[in-house]
Specification:
- By secondary structure, this protein is of the alpha+beta class.
- Among the domains are: about 1-30 and about 145-190, no CATH class; about 35-140, Transcription elongation factor, GreA/GreB, C-terminal domain (Chitinase A, domain 3, Roll), CATH 3.10.50.30.
- The chain has helices at about 20-30, 145-150, 155-190, 195-215, 220-230, 235-260, 270-285, 295-320, 325-355; strands at about 35, 45-55, 65-75, 105-110, 125-140.
- Strands 1, 2, 3, 4 and 5 form a five-stranded antiparallel sheet that branches.
- Helix 3 packs across helix 6 (about 235-260) and helix 6 packs across helix 8 (about 295-320).
Length: about 350
């Protein structure tokens, strides 16, 4: 592992801003809006349905120019309801302003050099839009009545408080993901990590199985997905699956060794609480049938719950080491021990003096 106790990394989870809370509530408000068909040009705030396709303006020789296959899409003009940016690029929905049903428009956009999708970096793409229909959205008031429609809030203030907590937890998780990823990379960089090829193959298969499950939920299979992202299985394995498997495997092995080195143990009551809590969550899952719960399933759930709790304890310890908190506790304990030692030696001294 190397000297991971010497690593230092500040921990400063980001605070949630008022703007983030307002944006979230706006998206929530939009999701409960009523839509009314209109026969006019599209305006900001309208829901627009359209057909969209896109291709590279200057494809390389032999390159497939298609970027977005012709198909239906929809946007709320000026509203961010699904992600941090409009799709297929930030500000795209504003291009729909002024268009009416059956209108067509071609939009060219050059992607930045740091675009998330490597295939689009620095490339100009030409998008063609054909508007199908337009609907005006009528938003509900953000008040106590709206909060009550959420089912578990009596007032808007309670709803807003819940949103703040949710966003704070999400921000914390995102921050910690990056924080611990960077820590593990540092530790792995100074460690000797070895594993047989079969272990890596198992991890690759594990990742593929999870991906297939997620795709199935969206009525897709792996082959269709690979076509949608313009790649083949071999390239996908080399560029996506294998790097992810190596990263997960290295992290898992480092985590395991730190747990051993730090002598991390779980109390029996912690284990019972974790397992029972997971089983309670399972029982509230839609479609849950207690008759189908087998002993094997319960054991698998229990092992997963204990594993997650154990890993969480290791991460807590690692954070304490990296932030210097563990060192402070150790120093305080040493000082306390040093302060109590003289009091234990004072009796013989007093006895000698008395003699």
């Amino acid at each position: 592992l190397g000297d991971y106790n010497a690593l230092r990394k500040d921990y400063e989870a980001p605070a949630v801003s008022d703007e983030q809370v307002t944006d979230y509530l706006r998206r929530l408000q939009t999701s409960y809006a009523t839509a009314e068909p209109v026969e006019r040009a599209a305006e900001k705030g309208d829901l627009v349905y359209y057909m969209l396709n896109g291709h590279y303006s200057q494809p390389a020789e032999g390159e497939d120019a298609e970027v977005v296959k012709d198909g239906p899409a929809q946007s709320i003009i000026g509203e961010d309801t699904l992600s941090d940016k409009d799709w297929p690029f930030a500000g795209f929905s504003d291009e729909l302003i002024g268009l009416s049903a059956n209108d067509e428009k071609t939009v060219k956009h050059t992607y930045a050099d740091d675009e998330k999708d490597e295939k689009l970096r620095g490339r100009e793409v030409e998008f063609h839009v054909t508007v199908q229909s337009i609907k005006a959205l009528h938003l509900p008031e953000l008040d106590d009545e709206f909060a009550k429609t959420m089912g578990e809030f009596a007032t808007f203030a309670e709803l807003k408080e819940s949103v703040v907590k949710q966003l704070s937890e999400s921000a914390r998780q995102e921050y910690e993901q990056k924080y611990f990823d960077e820590l593990f990379e540092e530790i792995a960089g100074q460690s000797t990590i070895k594993y047989p090829p079969q272990v890596l193959e198992d991890e690759q298969e594990h990742i593929l199985e999870h991906l297939k499950e997620d795709l199935t939920k969206n009525n897709l299979d792996l082959e269709t997905y690979l076509k949608l992202i313009n790649t083949d299985r071999e390239a996908f394995m080399a560029e996506q699956v294998t790097p992810a498997a190596v990263k997960r495997l290295r992290r898992s092995l480092v985590l395991e060794e730190i747990g051993k080195a730090e002598k991390i143990e779980l109390a029996e009551n912690e284990v019972n609480e974790a397992v029972n809590g997971t089983l309670r969550q399972l029982s509230t899952t839609p479609g849950f049938d207690p008759k189908k719960v087998t002993e094997r399933l319960v054991n698998a759930i229990a092992m997963d719950a204990v594993s997650r709790l154990y890993n969480a304890r290791i991460l807590e310890r690692l954070k304490a080491i990296a932030t210097g908190e563990a060192e402070k506790v150790a120093e305080a304990t040493t000082i306390e021990a040093g302060e109590t030692a003289p009091s234990g030696e004072s009796e013989p001294a007093e006895k000698d003096a008395a003699e």
